[in-house]
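Run log, item B.
One chain of 274 residues. Sequence copied directly from the ordering sheet:
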Amino acid sequence: TLEHLQGRIAVAKKVLKEGIEYCPKNHRLHHALGDLYREAKMLDSAERAYRRALELSPPVSNCFAYTALAYVAYERGCIEECRSWLRKSVSLNDGRHSQGWVALAQMEEAEGNVNAARGICIGAVALYERGLLQRNGSFGKRWNAATADFGKPVQIKGENKVMTLNSENLLARKEDLFQTVPQYRSGDKFINVFRNWARLEESYGSSDSVDEVYQRSSFAFPYDWKLMVNWAQYYTKHSLPDKARSLFLQACQRAKNRHADPYRLYAEYEMGSG
């Protein structure tokens, strides 16, 4: 990783191959080698490395190899193959693979399917929160209605797992999803799904839809100051200083004395405002 970050790709590849000689069944080394090949646009070699990682990885880690194979397919221009790999990745582990959800939504956005991208974010949150709410006993009728399309999210056909998504239904039921908001654990990677969803609403939605997503995510992650900063920066771009100041202040209150960045960003905003 160090050699890779320093731009010494050949040295990084040599180190990984030495590692594979010592640990030939370590799936992470094969996956990392695939990343190097993909960055170098050696897509055939990348695919072989990712498939080897898939063969060696435990079932709980297969989703990462599926997502990596989807990246290779997309770079080759094979959109349906990419979509298929990503749907397989999010079908595993009760939908907990945030990286796969974000990639699937971004792929649909890149292909011009904006509503599908937004629906994927909603569906990802719905499916993931099923487990959170069931564990704390808050699984209610409203949430059940909002996630009816995910009652059986994975259909097994032979050895292929197919994720079925109805974007229009999910968008229509978004309001029900907002009735119950479980609190996520600190550091949960699923925050990236919320960030991507917020970005989609900023690009294609209204200020109300942006507020909805940021408000919901701020409830789910009550200690994350970065969400409040992102929300404030949205209103900075739209020249609404009162809302921006309020959100910068909330970011500082969340950070307390643990992080200086929100205070600096708030100060920079005031400096920019004269």
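Observations after the first pass:
- Strands lie at 154-157, 160-163.
- Residues 139-164 have pLDDT under 50 and may be disordered.
Flagged for discussion on Thursday.
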